Amino acid sequence: MAESPVRSLINAGFGDTERAQRFLASPEFEGLDQQNLLTALSHAPDPDQALLLALRLVERHPPAREIFAEPETGLALIRLLGSSSALGEFLIRCDEALADVRIAPPADFVATDAELLRARLLASVQAHESEHGHQIAGLTGAEARQALRVAYRRGLLDLAYRDVNCVDPQDALPRVAAELADLAAAALDAALAVARAELAGQFTAQHVDAVNVAVIGMGKCGARELNYISDVDVIYVHSSLPLIDEDIAAQIAVAICSNAAKAIMAPGPEPMLWEVDANLRPEGKDGVLSRTLSSHEAYYQRWAQSWEFQALLKARAIAGDRDLGSAYERMVNPFVWSSPEREGFVESVQKMRRRVTDHIPKDEVNWQIKLGPGGLRDVEFTVQLLQLVHGRVDADIQVPTTTLAIDALSRIGYIGRQDAQDFADAYRFLRLLEHRIQLSQLRRTHLMPRAEQAQRVLARAIRPAGDLSATSPEKLLKRWNATKRLVRRLHEAIFYRPLLVSSSNLSADDVRLTPESAQARLRALGYLDPKAAMRHIEALIGGVSRRSSLQRQLLPVLLDWFARGVDPDAGLLGFRRISESLGKSHWFLGMLRDTNTAAERLCALLSNTRFLTDLLANEASAAAWLGNDAALRPLTLQALTQQNEAIIQRAKQPEAAVRQIRLIRRREVLRVALADGAELLDVSQVGAALSDIDAAMMDGILRVLMIVDQREHGEHASVAVIAMGRQGGREIGYGSDADVLLVQRPLPGADPQKAQEQALRVCTELLAWCSRPLKPAIPAEVKLKVDSDLRPEGRTGSLVRSLESYASYYDRWVEPWERQALLRARPFAGDMELAADFIELIEPVRYERALSESEVKEIRKIKARVESERLPRGADPTRHLKLGRGSLSDVEWLVQLYQLQHASEHPQLRTPSTLQALAALADLELLTDQDALELSDAWTLATRVRSAEIITAGRTSDVLPRSAREMEAVGRWCRYEPGHGHELEEDYLRVTRHSRAVFERLFYGFDD
Question: What sign for the dihedral angle of Cα 792, 793, 798, 802?
Fold first, then answer.
């Protein structure tokens, strides 16, 4: 049974069958074999587009019918029209280009010789050779630009015609990309000829001819792997004959380069070809457009940064004076291959890695063919880094083209044969996707289309010529995602797995690195002590146990993740310590193998934080939490208290109980820090969780000591601990002290004197046992220092008092600063009923009376004295996190001043929390929203930086770090992107400057 016309169109791939029937019946196609035409259209990636463009082409240029009348040429042209609407439009507006598609191309792609391309482009502008061998155009201005661009696009049309009609486009891709680079180079040669001709009225012909200019291609053009549409990165170099002054020669060279770029890019009837980008030149945009060879060399010797030498890896003379270009190549070559020995190489490599994903909008990451995970940049990064690491001693791998470099690396033995084949195939496939997407409209893009119809067209476009196998968007995306996964796996296998082979007695079929080569790889990625790193690797993978086997599976991935941290050496050492502390526990390595989140979190923590590394090494089982967000959530105060209760009931000796309670605190601080590092907690949640942990520990130790004392002396008193300061506000960080007040109450019928004596004995021991060294010691413990100096009469006053004693003191002697300190009082540990009674006692003291004018002045004087006396000598007040300008102290004193003045009228202000009080002040319009926001931002950032310093460095610090390495580590903990630690410094100085301005205006009453 014959197939219906509509069904035939659907099977051919048409989306709009009604329009297709109407077009096929057009007079323009009258007399053509409809079946041959329909067959040809079924081979087009986009039959609807191909048919429309064919119709318009015949309508505009009737002789085009002859091409469609021949089945072979008609099919080839239809396939081109269905692949590129942009080239179809070019054919329609340029009838002479029909000559380029009158003969069907061969099935195997055959590249056009670069010299032939150059001759064609030069002929288009009627170039002739000058006395000194330079090409000078016979055309200038708009006429020359039009002729050059038409000739270029005819060359592009011819190339695309052969490309889309070859039987193995993936295999042909390197040759296609090389011809695209050659075509761009030819266009630049023609543009230079036009530029020289256009200088006739500005300089003498003799002077212009005395200046030599070479164009050095960079990036993909330099490597002869250009896209269909891409910027062409260039560097210009010039020289001159002795008959001309050097300054005049420099002016002429700059004018030639500028005019050449104009010929390529200036607006005109035929659109610009692509952007000529000279920003990779010495000093970038600020540098002169062209330099002499000696000037380039002097710059590279004295001023160039490491990334500039890495960029020069792909440098190649592509246009202009060939001898000068070759001299430039010879000059820069030693700089490129010695760059791994230069200072800053590791940092530039890390930047090279980060640029893979930097600045990609989040909604584009999963659609990026070039920059996304498993994309083209991953391949290029791996290959270039291997070249830079090993190219100094192996000249055979000093090639700029990615596919050729992969072949060379495999041939010499730096990449296994099968891995190299898979890597090259993946790269070609990704480049083919990129080419077909760009070819469609000749637009620069690296994104996989999201529309289903566009994906369907792309799936058809990457098929070999003559292949009518079924395709679909689903199959396309499945193959693309599989390729991305392969690229990521191969990066690890190619770069890291040979390190394991070189460190063990394993058999290696393909790759075995010398110790020097292995260490060079590690050094290039930031390992400062590659010999020690190799020892750690040997220790981890040595032997034939299941554990060693798992380590060999994991380490290629983990080494890569450690290298992304601030301190890869510490990361690897920490991993070894944890692995060894867990002995033969296979669950740990199994979890890392099977739970990607856990492995990545662990690597980030170990390579960025000394504090957590020490804690994890001593609480290795806590690593199990990393793969489970629920397990990382801080325990409640009730749960912590219940654990302590169980310990107290089981323990036979008081010291053993105290030890277990302090061990719980160490473990729970680790849990909070891990959750913080996993970005599961904000600053307020961290402070509250840490405060609960401290409260539970003090409560547990207090109970142990009270039991011991009561056994010996009887039951006489109950004791409560009142938190003060930031502990009272539940706003502490890692390693914070605990400011407290201690209160006692005689038990019913007890002698008040004996109650006071018992409370004093217990409280004295409590403060000691919270931080007293134990035997055996608790490794990596950050001891809790308890400070009771805020009590009445300070250090000279009694350590613990009764409620009545506190009431008497506050009634008669309380100072404004003590009222201020009481604002943050909160029940903390011990007898909660007694603590509640204490809070009830101090409510009138802290809230029920506004400050008098003299008391306000007194508080201001105290604050000024704190600023002048307590700031450490030599400390920069703009960088001190606690006492510096606009930092914690400023914000808290301002908030507390407002609480003392207004809490009597506004109960909303009766809170020990700084952030809650700030929010309440804004709600009550006592502060503007902007002022409250600026104060809150400064307080929050200073709090986070203080915590980050102990987390990353393992020590407490109240000063913003100055070391770039320390700032980077702190910045990462504060959730800045890798490589952006300097932004933390800029943000801190900015927000504290704004905060200080608010503070001075509202606290001291300054107007400015």
Answer: negative
DSSP string, 977-995: PTT-HHHHHHHHHHHHHHH
Burial letters 257-269, b for 16+ CB under 10 A, else e:
bbbbbbbbbeeee
What distance in Å separates the CA atoms of residue 275 and residue 184, rounded to the nearest whole number? 11
CA–CA separation, 635 vs 716, rounded Å?
33
Cα→Cα distances 204→189, 201, 248, Å: 21, 7, 11
Confidence at 359, pLDDT banded by 50, 70, 90: low
pLDDT of residue 417: 87
| Sequence-distant (≥ 6) Cβ neighbours of residue 493 within 8 angstroms | 416, 419, 556
Round to whole Å and give the CA distance between 599 and 589.
Answer: 9
Which residues does residue 802 pair with via DSSP β-bridges, in sequence order? 744
pLDDT in tens, 851-884: 999 999 999 999 999 888 888 888 899 999 999 9
Asked if omega into 776 is within 30° of 0 (cis), the reply is yes
Output the pLDDT for position 511.
Answer: 56
CA–CA distance, 395 with 760 (Å, rounded to integer): 79
Lookup: tokens for 171? 């295999």
Element (H, E) at 54: helix 47-60
How many helices (H) does the chain have, and how many strands (E)?
A: 45, 12
pLDDT, mean of residues 494-507: 58
List the beta bridge partners of residue 316: 217
pTM, entire model: 0.74
Only one residue has tokens 């929390």, namely 913
Summary mean pLDDT of the chain: 92
Cα dihedral across residues 195, 200, 203, 206: positive or negative? positive
* 214 — pLDDT class (breaks 50, 70, 90): very high
Facing residues of 880 across strands?
Answer: 959
H/E stretch holding 345: helix 345-354
CA distance 867 to 873: 11
Residues 224/268, Cβ–Cβ less than 8 Å: no
Which is it for the CA torsion 370, 375, 377, 383, positive or negative?
A: negative
Helix, coil or strand: residue 802: strand
Amino acid occupying residue 136: I
Cβ count within 10 A of residue 287 = 15
Cα–Cα distance list, 371 to 364, 405, 677, 930 (Å)? 10, 20, 26, 39
Tokens of 734: 């890692």
Q: Are 292 and 239 in contact (CB under 8 A)?
A: yes
CB 766 within 8 A of CB 654: no
Q: Is the pLDDT of residue 392 over 90?
A: no
How far apart CA 107 and CA 110 sit, in angstroms, is 9
Please state the three-class secondary structure of 78-102 as a single string.
HHHHCCCHHHHHHHHHCHHHHHHHC
Buried b (16+ CB within 10 A) or exposed e, 640-677: bbebbeebbeebeebeebbbbbbbbbbbbbbbbbbbbb
State the greatest distance between any 2 C-alpha atoms of the chain, in Å, as a whole number: 121
Strand partners, 214: 237, 320
Q: Is the confidence at residue 801, as pLDDT, over 80?
A: yes
Nearest to residue 939, comparing CAs of 890, 989, 1005, 987? Answer: 890
Counted residue by residue, the chain has a size of 1008
Sorted by sequence, the CB contacts under 8 Å of residue 607 that are 6+ apart come out as 561, 562, 563, 564, 565, 566, 567, 568, 570, 571, 574
Indicate the pairing of strand 276-277 with strand 738-746.
unpaired
Taking the C-alpha atoms of residue 63 and residue 150, their distance in angstroms, rounded to an integer, is 20
Ramachandran area for residue 976 (φ above 0: left; ψ -120 to 50: alpha; else beta) = beta
Cα distance between residue 782 and residue 659, in whole Å = 13
CB half-sphere exposure, 301, CA atoms < 13 A: 7
Angle, to 10 degrees, between the axis of helix 515-524 and the axis of helix 376-390? 130
| CB neighbour burial string for 715-730, b if at least 16 within 10 angstroms, e if fewer | bbbbbbbbbbbbbbbb
